[in-house]
Amino acid sequence: MSNIQNNNTWLHKAYTEFSMALVNNANLKSYAEPLIQPLFPLWSANDYRAQVKQVRSESQNCYTLVLKPTKKWPGFLPGQFVELHVIKNGAKVSRCFSISSAPEQYTQFGTIELTIRAQDNGRITPWLKQALNEASTVGLSAAQGDFIIKDRSRPILMIAGGSGITPFRSYLHSHLHSQVMIEPTQEASLFYYARNQDEHLFEQELNSISDGNKHVTTYLISTAEMGHFSLEQLQQQCPDYRNYDIYICGPNSMIKDVNKVLLNTQVNEKNIFIERFGPAPVDFSKLDKAGTVNFSQSNKSAELGSHSNLLDLAENIGMQPESGCRMGICHKCSCRKQSGVVYNTLTNSYSDTGQEDIQLCISVPVGEVIIEL
Amino acid sequence: MDIKMKKTKPNAEQLLYLEQSFNAIRDEVISDLGERDAKHIHKIIRIQRSCEISGRILIMFGFNPIPWALGALLLGLSKILETMEIGHNVMHGQYDWMNDPNINSKTYDWDTACPGESWKETHNHEHHTYTNILGKDRDYGYDLLRLTHKEKWHPANLFQIVYYGLLSVFFQWGVALHELNFGGILKGEVSLKEKKPFLKQFGRKGARQIFKDYVFFPLIAGPFFLQVLLGNIVANLIRNLWTSTIIFCGHFPEEVETFSIEECENETKGHWYYRQMLGSANFNGGKLLHTLSGNLSFQVEHHLFPDLPAHRYAEISPKVQKIAKELGIPYHTGSFFKQYSGVVKRILVHSLPEPKTA
After folding, report:
1. How far apart are CA B151 and CA B181, in angstroms?
2. CB atoms B46 and A38 under 8 Å
């Protein structure tokens, strides 16, 4: 998230100490940010920033954001994602999106594309399309993630579901342009599943890529007509799939099914690479307030059981999180939630699904929650 | 004075009604939090930083007394805003919902000698949970002043108006050393050893503050070392006197009540609200006075809802007063002058032992 390198050189330590003494913040620039950012919205102390160039509809419920990051942004490899930071009603919200364009487009035009599905119960994704326009600026993390091509000398098989096509669009465009991706003589095959034909994103684009390159084949499969992924489909279109590196991106249920089929046919687990979506929006009407918690730093997990809140639960499994009033007023037990939904017993409301601070003593996990503790 | 007859305490049913009514006020604000609040805190931060930067420049380059004094005043003003409307309120978690690491109670540290971590323990947790419970809320008189006849008189109390004056002058250091619990150490209840981690924290933070105002900025002024040093001393003094005055007006005016530990055992949220109302006092004034006091001029509302953005207290005050009136619970308020003279009077009155009554 931060572009300040986390190095421990004495110079960096001295700077931090000096900055702490002068402005009680580890970065002097953060002190100046509230004065500078209103004048120069692309300037930022810790984040990278980007200018929105275009908001383009792709289908009924998908759209693409074309962004131009500032020069400091360090670039990316096909398959990586970024965290997008926007301010919604005064509060900063973050969501992760795979980059759907190729690095070559970034080098040439300085732009990247994020293709986003407006989730049915989503608080952010449908709003984002309305809220952003060509005058907007957004926050951006450095590119992250290791869903990148692991071995350039092997043929690849890409299996996409729904908006899981985004990293593969980046793969394929990059493959057309250069040798960064895989060697041009290696085969690249795409199996792209969507409910019906209308829901296939970038249909023309994908077809023209495979038409123009004899090593690239794309199969656009509508599950309404042809069913979900099966071994028969695979054997029919790509009989030597055991020689391929297999990359999968899509909804969790699809990943689970595909992975099971592949492992049953003795595909080596080492040749399967998976990218999962973040937590899907929750339909609050169907929730019960019991969930499981993973404490990421102490590597512990637990179920809510009879405990009334996350603080009780954490203490019960032998952790000693900082705490205070235990009634939601002092904020001593605040800590970072990485993902998942919690129910706030003080405000009787549900949290967002993304990263934010929560108070343990008044939070009840809903579904699966990851806490940095 | 606390010798007067206490009003009859609300019964369980009334306390439940109090709890529900105040929860409803809170919920209404929470569901309305948004851009307006973010704009407010951003604006205050911009004003504070502009004051600090221009103040420091004027102190350094104002070559005659008038711009120098203006500079010291601006720096003092910046420190007041930073301590009260920004630091105190941000560290209460009033803006945590903004999800901004620079305006977050977890990470924020303020421009005073008191380490943020220590403040969150002694103030947010101890003082706000156990408000005005004698023996539990060490903010009550700061182990230094006797403010109620419920506490035993000691000859040292004779001079407590002097201690109060000194505490105000060095207020940031008094606040910083609060966690040390000097009273407890003298009585042998607390060992110095267990305070070691705190002392380390305090040393670090105190050193940073001294470095900034009394070493770094005077030094870079070169030949103007003394005028910068003096300007910074004056600015800190302005802030110390002001914040001390505001804090004392919040809990020590004449009519504010205290509680015993037994009274508050297993208390309900309703009783907690009730105690916060009796234990705090407001003063009225204009918008500027409210902002400079970090809206602690609405100390009652602040104690009821410590983590609601403080600029909202003025808006919810009429609702709080209405409910208090319905239940016959006192709502302490008065002019700034009345509240402050009440504080001074209370310090003076309790510096003497009570006359023995037959």
Report:
1. 18
2. yes
Considering only A305-309, A336-340, B114-118, B152-156, which range has the smallest mean pLDDT? A305-309
> How much is the ipTM here?
0.89
Please list, in sequence order, all residues whose beta carbon lies within 8 angstroms of the beta carbon of residue B87, skipping any fewer than 6 positions away.
B108, B110, B111, B112
Residue B312: its chain A contacts at CB < 8 A? none
Choose between B7 and A257: higher pLDDT. Answer: A257
Q: What integer best gives the mean pLDDT of chain B?
A: 93
Task: Calculate helix-pair angle for A10-23, A28-36, nearest 10 degrees.
Answer: 50
A22 has a chain B CB within 8 A of its CB? yes
Q: Write the burial class of residue B223 (CB in 10 Å: 0-12 exposed, 13-18 middle, 19+ buried).
A: exposed
Question: Can you read off the two tokens belonging to residue B288?
Answer: 């500027």
Q: State the smallest CA–CA distance between residue A23 and chain B in angstroms.
A: 7
Q: At a CB cut-off of 8 Å and minimum separation 6, what does A364 contact?
A: A289, A290, A291, A304, A308, A309, A310, A342, A343, A345
DSSP string, A231-280: HHHHHHH-TTGGGSEEEEEE-HHHHHHHHHHHHHTT--GGGEEEEE--PP
What one-letter code names the amino acid at B257?
Answer: E
- Say if residues A185 and A213 touch (Cβ distance below 8 Å): no
Tell which residue, A83, A84, A85, A76, has the closest CA to residue A106: A76
Cα first-last separation, chain B: 20
Q: Which residues face A337 on adjacent strands?
A: A356, A371
CA A26 remoteness from chain centre = 28
- Selected for mutation to probe chain A from B25, B40, B85, B125 (highest A CB count within 10 Å) is B125
CB B56 within 8 A of CB B111: no
Contact: B211, A21; criterion CB under 8 Å: yes
> Which has the closest alpha carbon to B94: B246, B302, B280, B281?
B302
Closest-CA residue of B relative to A35 is: B46
CA distance A98 to A116: 9
A51 φ/ψ angles, rounded to the nearest 5 degrees = -95, 135
- Laid out side by side, the sheet with A156-161 consists of A216-222, A188-194, A156-161, A245-250, A272-276
Helix (H) or strand (E) holding B129: helix B128-129
The Cα–Cα gap between A272 and A73 comes to: 30
The three-point CA angle A339-A344-A347 to 5° equals 140
Q: Rounded to a whole number, what is the distance in Å from the CA of A74 to chain B's nearest CA?
A: 22
pLDDT of residue A213: 85
Residue B5 pLDDT more than 80? no
Residue B2 pLDDT greater than 50, yes or no: no
Query: From B90, which residue of chain A is nearest by alpha-carbon distance?
Result: A331
- Please say whether the beta carbons of A81 and A99 come within 8 A: yes
Residue among A31, A90, A92 minimizing CB distance to B49? A31
* Distance to chain A for B353, nearest Cα, Å: 36
**A87 interfaces chain B, CB cutoff of 8 Å:** yes
